[in-house]
Specification:
This protein has 226 residues and is an alpha/beta fold. 41% of the residues lie in helices and 20% in strands. It contains 8 helices and 11 strands. It has a 5-stranded parallel β-sheet, with helices on both faces. Bound molecules: calcium ion.
Length: 226
C-alpha cells in the first residue's frame, strides 16, 4: 500500500502542485487548507504516515496544530513549511514536536527526499522513552482553548503550548527545559518562577474545567500531566 502523506497548506496553488507531484511519485495524498481541517482529517484515527504542515495558516500557527495533533496521540513525523526569512520558525519547529522543516520556496524533489527519509525512520522500531497514554484533553490551536467533555476554557498562547508539551507525553515527566522551549519558542529567557507561575495558572484552569487530569510537580525535574 502506498504511504499516505497529509498536507496542510493554505496556498491553493502550492497545495495543488504538492498533491499532483506527490501522487506522481506514487504517494496517496490527503490535503487540507486550514489547521482546523488538519485536526479533523489527520486526527489519530485517520493519521497519515507523514504530515506536511505549513506554519503560516489562516486560522492557526502550524506549530500549535502540531502540538494539538500530538496531544491527540498522533505520532506521525511532521515536515514544517516555513517562509524564507523566518529563521526563528525553523528552530521552534523542531521544539514543538516536529521532525523536519523546509524553507519556501523549495524544489519538490527536496520534499520527496525528506518524506522518504522520515518514512524509513518511522518504519524502523524506535525505543520510546514515554509510554503513557495520550491525554483525554482536546486542544484547539485556532482558538487556544482546551476542552474536557462539554467544558472548555480559553488559554493564552503560552499556556496552550505548555499544556501541549505536557499532553503529548501525558503520564511522563516533562523536564523544565523542554517546557520552556515549548512555551517560549522564540528563545526568551525564562526564570524558574515564571515557569512555575504559568503552570500554577494552568493547573487552576484545568481544575475549573472539571478535568480528571491534573498537573503534578516533580520537584527539581519538571511537571507531569496525570
Ligand atoms: Ca501559509
Amino acid at each position: 500500500m502506498s504511504p499516505v502523506i497529509g498536507i496542510c497548506e493554505d496556498d491553493a496553488a502550492l497545495r495543488s502542485i504538492l498533491v499532483r507531484g506527490l501522487e506522481d511519485e506514487g504517494f496517496a495524498v490527503a490535503a487540507v487548507g486550514t489547521g482546523r481541517e488538519a485536526l479533523q482529517r489527520f486526527g489519530s484515527d485517520g493519521a497519515p504516515d507523514v504530515i506536511v504542515l505549513d506554519i503560516g495558516l489562516p486560522d492557526a500557527d502550524g506549530r500549535d496544530v502540531c502540538q494539538a495533533l500530538r496531544a491527540g496521540g498522533v505520532t506521525a513525523p511532521v515536515v514544517f513549511l516555513t517562509a524564507r526569512d523566518a529563521v526563528v520558525d525553523r528552530v521552534a519547529g523542531f521544539r514543538s514536536g516536529g521532525d523536519d522543516y523546509l524553507t519556501k520556496p523549495f524544489a519538490l524533489v527536496e520534499l520527496i527526499v525528506r518524506l522518504e527519509a522520515l518514512l524509513r525512520r518511522a518504519a524502523a522500531p524506535e525505543p520510546r522513552t514515554a509510554v503513557g497514554p495520550s491525554s483525554s484533553l482536546v486542544l484547539d490551536p485556532a482558538t487556544h482553548t482546551v476542552s474536557s467533555g462539554t467544558q472548555h476554557v480559553l488559554l493564552t498562547p503560552t499556556e496552550f503550548r505548555l499544556l501541549g508539551a505536557l499532553a503529548r507525553d501525558a503520564g511522563a515527566v516533562v523536564r523544565r527545559r523542554t517546557l520552556v522551549q515549548a512555551g517560549w519558542p522564540d528563545g526568551a529567557t525564562v526564570h524558574d518562577n515564571t515557569l512555575d507561575s504559568y503552570l500554577a495558572r494552568l493547573r487552576r484552569k484545568l481544575r475549573g474545567l472539571g478535568s480528571s487530569e491534573t498537573i503534578v510537580t516533580v520537584r527539581g525535574v519538571g511537571y507531569s500531566l496525570q
